[in-house]
Amino acid sequence: YKRQTLVLLGATTGHLGQSLWLREIAGREDGAPPPVDLATERRTGDFLRAQITEGRIQAAHDCADGGLLVTIAEMLMETGTGLRLRDVAGSIPAHAFWFGEDQSRYVVATADAQPLLAAAQAAGIPATILGETGEKDLVLPDGTAISVASLRAANEATLPALMEGN
């Protein structure tokens, strides 16, 4: 994703029920899972597929498991590219915005965000620019920098460590 813009497609409400964040950080396994709206899933999926066919999207990843920040980290680890995130949470608490598991959301990489944003608006699909790639780190909106290489190393060490009983 060298010199790409990452865009969030879909609406965010910050749904944390039954989420990885709730289980791993808060130590809880309660709340209802995020509601699924099949019509929205279909409309968003059809839009995503059309934009890929049009050549506007170079990569896409769903946001269901772990939320938006986990999705972004997975995408960056795949390419080794960093990203400076914009502060786009709005009125949603930051932890709910970045780790909520709302449905019908995708992070996409595009070389030219404006045609994608215009198409999304015309289709009634919420679209938000998350940031531009080109950094070596994942830089959070508060300025905290996390090395993409360290994210990858930690991710790749997890399964072997579990298999060794660590």
Automatic annotation (TrEMBL):
Gene3D superfamilies attached to this UniProt entry: PurM-like C-terminal domain (3.90.650.10)
SUPFAM superfamilies, A to Z: PurM C-terminal domain-like (SSF56042)
InterPro entries: PRibForGlyAmidine_synth_PurL, PurM-like_C_dom, PurM-like_C_sf
One Pfam family cited in the UniProt record for this chain: AIRS_C
Signal peptide: none
Alphabetical GO biological process terms: 'de novo' IMP biosynthetic process
Gene Ontology MF term list: phosphoribosylformylglycinamidine synthase activity
UniProt domain PurM-like C-terminal: residue ranges: 5-137
Protein name: Phosphoribosylformylglycinamidine synthase II
